[in-house]
Protein DETOXIFICATION 27-like
Amino acid sequence: MSSSRALEDAKVPLLDNLASTVRSNDGQDVDDQDQYLARRFWIESKKLWHIVGPSIFSRITSYSMVVITQAFAGHLGDLELAGISIATNVILGFDLGLLLGMASALETLCGQAFGAKKYYMLGVYMQRSWIVLFVCCVLLLPLYLCASPFLKLLGQPPEVAELSGLVAMWLIPLHFCCAFQFPLQRFLQSQMKAGVIAWVSLLALVVHVIVSWLFVYKLKLGVVGTAATLNFSWWVLVFGLLAYTICGGCPLTWTGFSTEAFSGLWEFVKLSVASGVMLCLENWYYRVLVLMTGNLKNAEIAVDALSIW
Protein backbone atom coordinates (compact mmCIF):
# COMPACT_ATOMS: atom_id res chain seq x y z
CA MET A 1 0.00 0.00 0.00
CA SER A 2 2.78 2.38 0.87
CA SER A 3 4.66 1.67 -2.32
CA SER A 4 1.59 2.19 -4.48
CA ARG A 5 0.80 5.42 -2.66
CA ALA A 6 4.36 6.59 -3.24
CA LEU A 7 3.98 5.77 -6.92
CA GLU A 8 0.77 7.78 -7.15
CA ASP A 9 2.42 10.70 -5.38
CA ALA A 10 5.29 10.60 -7.89
CA LYS A 11 2.85 10.70 -10.84
CA VAL A 12 1.27 13.97 -9.75
CA PRO A 13 4.28 16.29 -10.39
CA LEU A 14 5.02 14.41 -13.60
CA LEU A 15 1.51 15.08 -14.91
CA ASP A 16 1.72 18.69 -13.82
CA ASN A 17 5.01 19.14 -15.66
CA LEU A 18 3.58 17.49 -18.76
CA ALA A 19 0.49 19.73 -18.70
CA SER A 20 2.59 22.86 -18.30
CA THR A 21 4.84 21.76 -21.16
CA VAL A 22 1.81 21.23 -23.42
CA ARG A 23 0.43 24.65 -22.46
CA SER A 24 3.75 26.33 -23.20
CA ASN A 25 4.03 24.54 -26.51
CA ASP A 26 0.49 25.56 -27.41
CA GLY A 27 1.29 29.17 -26.53
CA GLN A 28 4.45 29.03 -28.59
CA ASP A 29 2.52 27.60 -31.55
CA VAL A 30 -0.01 30.42 -31.27
CA ASP A 31 2.80 32.99 -31.18
CA ASP A 32 4.46 31.38 -34.20
CA GLN A 33 1.16 31.44 -36.09
CA ASP A 34 0.64 35.12 -35.24
CA GLN A 35 4.15 35.97 -36.39
CA TYR A 36 3.63 33.97 -39.60
CA LEU A 37 0.33 35.71 -40.35
CA ALA A 38 1.83 39.13 -39.64
CA ARG A 39 4.79 38.34 -41.92
CA ARG A 40 2.52 37.11 -44.71
CA PHE A 41 0.28 40.15 -44.31
CA TRP A 42 3.30 42.43 -44.65
CA ILE A 43 4.58 40.60 -47.73
CA GLU A 44 1.20 40.59 -49.46
CA SER A 45 0.58 44.25 -48.57
CA LYS A 46 3.87 45.26 -50.16
CA LYS A 47 2.99 43.34 -53.31
CA LEU A 48 -0.46 44.90 -53.41
CA TRP A 49 0.71 48.47 -52.85
CA HIS A 50 3.43 48.02 -55.45
CA ILE A 51 0.58 47.91 -57.97
CA VAL A 52 -2.18 49.88 -56.26
CA GLY A 53 -0.06 52.82 -55.08
CA PRO A 54 1.08 53.96 -58.55
CA SER A 55 -2.40 53.30 -59.94
CA ILE A 56 -3.97 55.55 -57.29
CA PHE A 57 -1.39 58.24 -57.98
CA SER A 58 -1.95 58.16 -61.76
CA ARG A 59 -5.73 58.37 -61.29
CA ILE A 60 -5.33 61.34 -58.93
CA THR A 61 -3.13 63.17 -61.44
CA SER A 62 -5.69 62.62 -64.22
CA TYR A 63 -8.47 64.12 -62.11
CA SER A 64 -6.15 66.88 -60.90
CA MET A 65 -5.64 68.09 -64.45
CA VAL A 66 -9.37 68.74 -64.80
CA VAL A 67 -9.51 70.35 -61.35
CA ILE A 68 -6.57 72.63 -62.19
CA THR A 69 -8.26 73.62 -65.44
CA GLN A 70 -11.43 74.52 -63.55
CA ALA A 71 -9.37 76.49 -61.01
CA PHE A 72 -7.76 78.58 -63.75
CA ALA A 73 -11.17 79.09 -65.39
CA GLY A 74 -12.52 80.32 -62.05
CA HIS A 75 -10.09 83.24 -62.22
CA LEU A 76 -11.65 84.30 -65.52
CA GLY A 77 -15.24 84.63 -64.24
CA ASP A 78 -18.39 82.78 -63.20
CA LEU A 79 -19.57 82.24 -66.76
CA GLU A 80 -16.20 80.83 -67.83
CA LEU A 81 -16.10 78.45 -64.87
CA ALA A 82 -19.63 77.25 -65.63
CA GLY A 83 -18.77 76.74 -69.30
CA ILE A 84 -15.62 74.77 -68.51
CA SER A 85 -17.43 72.76 -65.83
CA ILE A 86 -20.28 71.64 -68.06
CA ALA A 87 -17.95 70.88 -70.98
CA THR A 88 -15.60 68.76 -68.84
CA ASN A 89 -18.05 67.21 -66.39
CA VAL A 90 -21.00 66.62 -68.74
CA ILE A 91 -19.81 66.43 -72.37
CA LEU A 92 -16.37 64.99 -71.68
CA GLY A 93 -17.66 63.07 -68.65
CA PHE A 94 -20.32 61.21 -70.67
CA ASP A 95 -17.69 60.46 -73.28
CA LEU A 96 -15.03 59.25 -70.85
CA GLY A 97 -17.49 57.02 -69.05
CA LEU A 98 -18.22 55.08 -72.23
CA LEU A 99 -14.64 54.94 -73.53
CA LEU A 100 -13.18 54.01 -70.15
CA GLY A 101 -15.73 51.24 -69.78
CA MET A 102 -15.03 49.89 -73.25
CA ALA A 103 -11.29 49.90 -72.57
CA SER A 104 -11.91 47.95 -69.36
CA ALA A 105 -12.55 44.85 -71.49
CA LEU A 106 -8.82 44.89 -72.12
CA GLU A 107 -8.13 44.18 -68.44
CA THR A 108 -9.76 40.76 -68.69
CA LEU A 109 -8.21 39.81 -72.03
CA CYS A 110 -4.69 41.04 -71.25
CA GLY A 111 -4.76 39.52 -67.78
CA GLN A 112 -5.72 36.12 -69.17
CA ALA A 113 -3.13 36.30 -71.96
CA PHE A 114 -0.37 37.34 -69.56
CA GLY A 115 -1.25 34.54 -67.14
CA ALA A 116 -1.29 32.00 -69.98
CA LYS A 117 2.14 33.28 -71.14
CA LYS A 118 0.75 34.27 -74.55
CA TYR A 119 2.62 37.53 -74.28
CA TYR A 120 2.39 38.62 -77.92
CA MET A 121 -1.42 38.63 -77.67
CA LEU A 122 -1.32 41.58 -75.25
CA GLY A 123 -0.06 43.80 -78.04
CA VAL A 124 -2.67 42.42 -80.45
CA TYR A 125 -5.48 43.00 -77.96
CA MET A 126 -4.32 46.56 -77.36
CA GLN A 127 -4.29 47.31 -81.08
CA ARG A 128 -7.80 45.90 -81.41
CA SER A 129 -8.90 48.16 -78.59
CA TRP A 130 -7.32 51.16 -80.37
CA ILE A 131 -9.31 50.38 -83.51
CA VAL A 132 -12.62 49.87 -81.70
CA LEU A 133 -12.26 52.94 -79.48
CA PHE A 134 -11.14 55.15 -82.39
CA VAL A 135 -14.22 54.20 -84.40
CA CYS A 136 -16.33 54.87 -81.32
CA CYS A 137 -14.72 58.32 -81.00
CA VAL A 138 -15.67 59.10 -84.59
CA LEU A 139 -19.28 58.06 -83.91
CA LEU A 140 -19.36 60.25 -80.76
CA LEU A 141 -18.11 63.38 -82.56
CA PRO A 142 -21.65 64.89 -82.87
CA LEU A 143 -21.70 65.08 -79.07
CA TYR A 144 -18.92 67.69 -79.32
CA LEU A 145 -19.90 69.35 -82.59
CA CYS A 146 -23.54 69.86 -81.52
CA ALA A 147 -22.93 70.47 -77.83
CA SER A 148 -24.54 73.93 -77.75
CA PRO A 149 -27.97 72.99 -79.21
CA PHE A 150 -27.91 69.78 -77.20
CA LEU A 151 -27.40 71.69 -73.93
CA LYS A 152 -30.04 74.27 -74.85
CA LEU A 153 -32.48 71.45 -75.53
CA LEU A 154 -31.83 70.18 -72.02
CA GLY A 155 -32.73 73.57 -70.55
CA GLN A 156 -29.30 75.09 -69.92
CA PRO A 157 -29.00 78.92 -70.01
CA PRO A 158 -28.16 80.08 -73.58
CA GLU A 159 -24.93 81.88 -72.64
CA VAL A 160 -23.66 78.86 -70.67
CA ALA A 161 -24.67 76.48 -73.46
CA GLU A 162 -22.89 78.58 -76.12
CA LEU A 163 -19.68 78.82 -74.13
CA SER A 164 -19.77 75.12 -73.21
CA GLY A 165 -20.20 74.27 -76.89
CA LEU A 166 -17.15 76.36 -77.77
CA VAL A 167 -15.09 74.65 -75.08
CA ALA A 168 -16.30 71.23 -76.23
CA MET A 169 -14.99 71.93 -79.74
CA TRP A 170 -11.54 72.54 -78.28
CA LEU A 171 -11.71 69.27 -76.35
CA ILE A 172 -11.99 67.13 -79.50
CA PRO A 173 -8.22 66.32 -79.54
CA LEU A 174 -8.55 65.07 -75.95
CA HIS A 175 -11.58 63.03 -77.04
CA PHE A 176 -9.47 61.09 -79.56
CA CYS A 177 -6.59 60.90 -77.10
CA CYS A 178 -8.69 58.64 -74.87
CA ALA A 179 -8.90 55.99 -77.60
CA PHE A 180 -5.16 55.41 -77.20
CA GLN A 181 -4.53 56.35 -73.57
CA PHE A 182 -6.99 53.97 -71.88
CA PRO A 183 -5.84 50.82 -73.74
CA LEU A 184 -2.18 51.74 -73.13
CA GLN A 185 -2.78 52.06 -69.40
CA ARG A 186 -4.52 48.68 -69.15
CA PHE A 187 -1.89 47.06 -71.34
CA LEU A 188 0.84 48.17 -68.93
CA GLN A 189 -1.14 47.51 -65.75
CA SER A 190 -1.71 43.87 -66.73
CA GLN A 191 2.10 43.51 -66.79
CA MET A 192 2.47 45.12 -63.35
CA LYS A 193 4.08 48.23 -64.87
CA ALA A 194 1.94 50.70 -62.93
CA GLY A 195 5.07 52.59 -61.87
CA VAL A 196 5.68 53.66 -65.47
CA ILE A 197 2.16 55.06 -65.70
CA ALA A 198 2.69 56.99 -62.45
CA TRP A 199 5.93 58.61 -63.62
CA VAL A 200 4.50 59.60 -67.00
CA SER A 201 1.36 60.93 -65.26
CA LEU A 202 3.55 63.09 -63.02
CA LEU A 203 5.29 64.50 -66.10
CA ALA A 204 1.92 65.22 -67.73
CA LEU A 205 0.71 66.99 -64.57
CA VAL A 206 3.79 69.23 -64.47
CA VAL A 207 3.33 70.07 -68.16
CA HIS A 208 -0.33 70.84 -67.53
CA VAL A 209 0.41 73.32 -64.73
CA ILE A 210 3.08 75.12 -66.78
CA VAL A 211 0.96 75.29 -69.95
CA SER A 212 -2.10 76.47 -67.97
CA TRP A 213 -0.12 79.30 -66.38
CA LEU A 214 1.36 80.23 -69.77
CA PHE A 215 -1.94 80.23 -71.68
CA VAL A 216 -4.07 81.97 -69.05
CA TYR A 217 -1.74 84.53 -67.49
CA LYS A 218 0.93 85.19 -70.12
CA LEU A 219 -0.76 84.68 -73.47
CA LYS A 220 -4.23 85.75 -72.20
CA LEU A 221 -6.03 83.14 -74.31
CA GLY A 222 -9.06 83.08 -72.03
CA VAL A 223 -11.42 80.15 -71.71
CA VAL A 224 -10.31 78.66 -75.04
CA GLY A 225 -6.70 78.55 -73.85
CA THR A 226 -7.81 77.02 -70.57
CA ALA A 227 -9.57 74.19 -72.38
CA ALA A 228 -6.66 73.67 -74.78
CA THR A 229 -4.28 72.93 -71.90
CA LEU A 230 -5.97 69.58 -71.31
CA ASN A 231 -5.07 68.52 -74.85
CA PHE A 232 -1.36 69.11 -74.20
CA SER A 233 -1.15 67.22 -70.92
CA TRP A 234 -3.24 64.21 -71.97
CA TRP A 235 -1.34 63.76 -75.24
CA VAL A 236 1.93 63.98 -73.29
CA LEU A 237 0.63 61.02 -71.32
CA VAL A 238 -0.18 59.09 -74.50
CA PHE A 239 3.15 59.74 -76.20
CA GLY A 240 5.06 58.96 -73.01
CA LEU A 241 3.39 55.57 -72.53
CA LEU A 242 3.62 54.78 -76.24
CA ALA A 243 7.32 55.64 -76.36
CA TYR A 244 8.00 53.37 -73.40
CA THR A 245 6.04 50.54 -75.03
CA ILE A 246 7.53 50.59 -78.52
CA CYS A 247 11.09 51.58 -77.53
CA GLY A 248 11.92 48.41 -75.64
CA GLY A 249 9.96 48.71 -72.42
CA CYS A 250 7.78 45.69 -73.26
CA PRO A 251 9.93 43.35 -75.37
CA LEU A 252 7.74 40.28 -74.78
CA THR A 253 4.31 41.83 -75.18
CA TRP A 254 4.96 44.37 -77.93
CA THR A 255 6.25 42.85 -81.17
CA GLY A 256 5.12 45.63 -83.48
CA PHE A 257 1.95 46.45 -85.35
CA SER A 258 0.11 43.39 -86.58
CA THR A 259 -2.66 42.74 -89.12
CA GLU A 260 -4.01 40.20 -86.62
CA ALA A 261 -5.48 43.18 -84.77
CA PHE A 262 -8.15 43.46 -87.50
CA SER A 263 -9.44 39.93 -86.90
CA GLY A 264 -12.06 39.10 -84.32
CA LEU A 265 -13.16 42.72 -84.04
CA TRP A 266 -16.87 41.96 -83.67
CA GLU A 267 -16.34 39.72 -80.63
CA PHE A 268 -14.11 42.43 -79.16
CA VAL A 269 -16.78 45.06 -79.83
CA LYS A 270 -19.43 43.04 -77.99
CA LEU A 271 -17.21 42.59 -74.95
CA SER A 272 -16.19 46.26 -74.99
CA VAL A 273 -19.77 47.53 -75.27
CA ALA A 274 -20.89 45.33 -72.37
CA SER A 275 -18.07 46.70 -70.20
CA GLY A 276 -18.82 50.25 -71.33
CA VAL A 277 -22.50 50.07 -70.41
CA MET A 278 -21.73 48.78 -66.92
CA LEU A 279 -19.33 51.63 -66.17
CA CYS A 280 -21.55 54.26 -67.78
CA LEU A 281 -24.46 53.46 -65.48
CA GLU A 282 -22.12 54.03 -62.55
CA ASN A 283 -20.52 57.18 -63.94
CA TRP A 284 -23.32 59.10 -65.59
CA TYR A 285 -25.52 59.82 -62.58
CA TYR A 286 -23.26 62.67 -61.48
CA ARG A 287 -23.31 64.15 -64.98
CA VAL A 288 -27.10 64.18 -64.89
CA LEU A 289 -26.93 66.00 -61.54
CA VAL A 290 -24.80 68.77 -63.07
CA LEU A 291 -27.29 69.13 -65.94
CA MET A 292 -30.19 69.41 -63.50
CA THR A 293 -28.31 72.12 -61.59
CA GLY A 294 -28.17 74.17 -64.78
CA ASN A 295 -31.96 74.56 -64.60
CA LEU A 296 -31.85 76.36 -61.24
CA LYS A 297 -31.96 80.12 -60.72
CA ASN A 298 -28.52 81.73 -60.94
CA ALA A 299 -27.41 78.70 -62.92
CA GLU A 300 -23.82 79.90 -63.29
CA ILE A 301 -23.24 80.05 -59.53
CA ALA A 302 -25.09 76.77 -58.95
CA VAL A 303 -23.06 74.91 -61.59
CA ASP A 304 -19.83 76.46 -60.32
CA ALA A 305 -20.55 75.39 -56.75
CA LEU A 306 -21.50 71.83 -57.69
CA SER A 307 -18.47 71.43 -59.94
CA ILE A 308 -16.09 72.63 -57.23
CA TRP A 309 -17.75 70.27 -54.76
User: Anything to note?
Assistant: The chain has one domain: 53-308. The radius of gyration is 29 Å. The chain has a mean pLDDT of 82. The chain is about 85% helix and 0% strand.
